[in-house]
Specification:
The complex is a heterodimer of chains A (about 425) and B (about 375). Chain A is of the alpha/beta class and about 425 residues long. Chain A is about 30% helix and about 25% strand. The C terminus of chain A is likely disordered. The C terminus of chain B is likely disordered. Classes of the chains: A alpha/beta (about 425), B alpha/beta (about 375). At the A-B interface, α12, β22 and α14 of A face α5, β12, α8 and β16 of B. The complex binds flavin-adenine dinucleotide (2 copies). Chain A: InterPro entries: BFD-like_2Fe2S-bd_dom_sf (IPR041854), FAD/NAD-bd_sf (IPR036188), FAD/NAD-binding_dom (IPR023753), Metab_Enz_Cyan_OpOx_G3PDH (IPR051691), Opine_Oxase_asu/HCN_bsu (IPR017224).
Amino acid sequence: MSSELHTDIAIIGAGPAGIAAAIAACAQGAHVTLVDDNPRPGGQIWRGGPSQAPASASSTFRQLADSQARLLSGFRVAAIPAPGQLLLEDPHRAQVLRYGKLIIASGARERLLPFPGWTLPGVTGAGGLQALVKGGLDVRDQHIVLAGTGPLLLASAATLRAAGAQVLLIAEQAPWSQLARFGWALKAYPAKLAQAASLAWQLGGVPYHHASHVLAALGQTRLEGVQLQLGARTLTLPCDWLGVGYGLLPNTELLRALHCQISQGAAEVDALMQTSQAGIYAVGEATGIGGVDKALLEGRIAGLAATGAAAAAQALAPKRKRQLAFAALLDKHFALQPAITQLAQPDTLVCRCEDVSHASLQLFDSWREAKLQTRCGMGACQGRICGAACESLYGWQGSGDRPPLLPTRLGSLLEPTLAKANPT
Amino acid sequence: MNPVMHGDVLIIGAGIIGSALAEQCARRGLRVAVAEAAIPAAGTSAAGMGHLVVLDDNPAELALSRDGLARWQARRHELPANAEYRACGTLWLARDEAEMQEAERKQAGYQQHGLSSNLLPATALRKLEPALAPNLAGALQVPDDAVLYPPVASRWLLQNAQALGAQLWCKAQVSSVDDEGVARLADGRLLRARHIVIAAGNASATLLPGLPLKPRKGQLLITERYPQRIRHQLVELGYIRSAHASDGDSVAFNVQPRATGQLLIGSSRQFHDTDPAINWPLLQAMLSRALEYLPSLRQLQALRSWAGFRPATPDKLPLLGKVPGHSRLWLATGHEGLGITTALASAHLLADLLCEQAPALDPTPYNPARFGPWSLADQHHPVGVAA
Ligand SMILES: Cc1cc2nc3c(=O)[nH]c(=O)nc-3n(C[C@H](O)[C@H](O)[C@H](O)COP(=O)(O)OP(=O)(O)OC[C@H]3O[C@@H](n4cnc5c(N)ncnc54)[C@H](O)[C@@H]3O)c2cc1C
Ligand SMILES: Cc1cc2nc3c(=O)[nH]c(=O)nc-3n(C[C@H](O)[C@H](O)[C@H](O)COP(=O)(O)OP(=O)(O)OC[C@H]3O[C@@H](n4cnc5c(N)ncnc54)[C@H](O)[C@@H]3O)c2cc1C
C-alpha cells in the first residue's frame, strides 16, 4: 500500500450507516473508501461481519461486496493533519487518506455512569458485554444481570441467552408509565414492534423489572454479586457478569475536530445530511440515537447527496422524518431518573483512567478546572467515558479536544508529508 | 457605581504569577483581591511543562531563575503530593564535540555562581539514560533542577493566599484600569485598591496598549504511561538557541518524565501564529527532533498534544515593577518560557517593591521602564480580552 491514498468520498465507520452510504455513493459511480477500526464491517449491530449477521442484513452486505468500495478494515482515523486529509493507523502502519467529500458514520457508544463497584472486573456496559460475546467471550452457564435503560438491554440479553448464558434479570430504570407509553407509541412503527416482539419471544422467562437500577456491584477483586433496587425493594443477587448501560451517546470526536456544529450531543445536519461544514456529512447514530433503520436510511441519503444526486436524496426525506420521530420517542421515554445520577459514593471513582473520585470532583465548578486539578479525563480514554458521566452528574460541558483522536503511535504522526515548516 | 471592593492590592489574573504574588502579599499582611477573567491556573500556566530550570543565558535570567528554583526547593515539602514536585535534575545533551565544549563553558558559568553540575562523558550518560541515542557525545547534568505540575502548584499558591484572607473573584474580566486604583470589570462592576497589579499574561497588553508583549506559541505532546523509561528532564544544548532566537519558528528537543510515567515532549517556539490549534508541520519537526535523541519514542502511544502561548518581551525578561509614568499601577508579566520557575522569585521581588522594601535581587533588569511608556486602555471602550 502506498503511504498516501486518494478517494472521492471517504466514509468513516462501516456500521449500517456507513455501509449504506458506500453502496449508494458507489452506485453513482464515485470512488469510495470505507474506513473502520474493526476487523470486519458491520458496526455495533452486525459486529461479527457478514458471516454472523442476521438474514435481514445479508442483502446489505452482498451489495457492499458487489460495490467497488475500497474497504480499509482495522484502520482508525487518528487525526486530521490538514483539511481534506485523514491520518489513518492500523496496528502496523500509518496511512494518509485524501478525500473530496467526507461522510462520518462514527456510531455511538454506551453511557456508563458511576456506582459503587462499577470498576470491578466483571462489570461492563450492557452493549459492551454483548460485544464481548460477539467477539468470542464464552458466557455459557454464566449468571448475568443486565441493568440500565433502553432497548439495548433487550438486544443484549437476547445475544447473551443465545450464547448460553443465564440472564437472571433485567433492571430497566424507566418507570412503568413511561414504558407503557413507549409501547403504545411503537404501534405506529410495525417494524419496530415486530423487532420488540421477537426480542420478547427470545427473552421468554427473563424477569424484566421497571423503575429498577443497580445500587452497587459487590466483590473484592472481581464481581461476586449485585445489589439492586427493584421498585420499592432491594435485592442482592450473586452473579458472574453485570452489564450496565444508560443508553447511547453519539461519537462526535471526529465531527468536533472538523469543527462541525454539534447540538445536544449530536451532529447538526440538514435534510441532505450535510453538517455545518460544506462537503462533510454525518449519518446514523452520530446525528442522534435512532437505531439501525435510521442509520441505513441516512447513509443512503448522504451517499446520494455527496455524489450530486440531490433529488433522489431529497425524495427520502419524508421517510427520515418518521425515523426521527422514533428517535425522539426513545429519547423521551428512556430519559434518566434522578436517582441514577446519585448512586456514586464519595470514594466511587468517576474517572477510572486516572483514579479520580466523586468526592474530589465535587470540589469544582467546571470540567476544565476539574480536569486541570485532578487529571479527570486526561487518561487513555481522553474523557470519552468520564466526560459524559461528569455531564450527567455535575452538569459540566466538556471542552477542548486535543489531537490525536485516539492514542496513536508517535511514528504514525510523522507519516503525512505536509508542507514543510522551516524550523531553525 | 461605587467600587465593590476596597483593599491594598488588586491583582488582575490568577495564573501562576498572579497567584504567587497574591500569596506573597497576603503573607505580608496586605489585603489582597484577585480578579480572574476565567478560572484560575487555566491560561498559559496550564499549558506549560513545569520544568524548574536555572538558565544562564544572561545574568538577569540566571538571577531570577536561580532564586525561583531555590524558593521552590525550600517549599517542596509544603507542596501537595499532586503538585508532583520531583528533583529529577536536567541533562543538557551534547551531540558532538562542539556541543560538548559548550557544555564545558556552561559548567564553568554555573560553577562561577556556585551552582553544582557534572560533565558526563558518553558512557556515563548511557548508564544514566539508556534510552538515549548511542551517538551522543555526553551531557551536562544539573542535579538540582526539578519538575512540577503547574496547574496544581498554581492553585495551591492561590489557596494559600485565600487562607490568609485574599479574595478571589472568578469570571471577573477586567476591561480597564486607571491610575486612581480603579479597575472596571466587563460586567460594569468596579474594584478599587491602593495598588493594581496587572498579571494577566498575554492579555496584559489589552489593558496597556503598546505594551511590548507578544504571544509566543509553543506545542507539547504527552504520551501514555511508560514508567521508568526516562529519569531526568532531557534538553538539547541547542535549546537556548531556540529559546532566544528572536524570530522565526524553531524546535528543540526537550522531554520531561512526569510522575505518572508519562513523557511530556517539547518544544517549539513560534511568533506570528495565534491559532490555538496544533500546527502540524511544526509538531512533526518537533517529534522528528525528539526521535533523533530518543529513537524508541517512535513506538510509544501519543495521548494528546496542545499549544500554549508564552508571554514574551523583546528581551525575554519579565516586566516586574511600576508601569512607567504611573504611581499605583504595576506589572507582573512577560515571563515567556520561565514563568513557572521564576514565579516565586518574581512574587518576592514585586512584593518588596510594593511594600517599599529593598528587594534581594537587583530589580533594574526587569523594570518595565526599560520599554515604556504606554497609555491606558480607553476607559469608555473596554477592550475584549482573550482569556
Ligand atoms: C455497544 C453497542 C451495542 C449495540 N448493539 C445493538 C444491537 O444488538 N441491536 C441493535 O439494534 N442496536 C445495537 N446497538 C445500536 C447501534 O448503535 C445501532 O443499531 C446501529 O449499529 C447504528 O449504526 P451506525 O452505522 O450509526 O453506527 P455503528 O454501528 O456504531 O458503526 C460505527 C462504526 O464506526 C467505527 N468508528 C467510529 N469512529 C471511528 C474512527 N475514528 N475510525 C475508524 N472507525 C471508527 C466504529 O468502530 C463502528 O464500527 C448497539 C450500540 C452499541 C454502542
Ligand atoms: C509550551 C510551554 C512550555 C512551557 N514550559 C515551561 C517550563 O518548563 N518551565 C517554566 O518555568 N515555564 C514554562 N512555560 C512558561 C510558563 O508557563 C509561563 O511563563 C507562565 O505560565 C506565565 O504565567 P502567567 O500567570 O503570567 O500567565 P497565565 O497563566 O496566562 O495567567 C494569566 C491569567 O490572567 C487571566 N486574565 C487575562 N486577562 C484578564 C483580565 N482582563 N481580567 C482578569 N483576568 C485576566 C487569564 O485568564 C489567566 O488566568 C511554558 C510555556 C509554554 C507555553
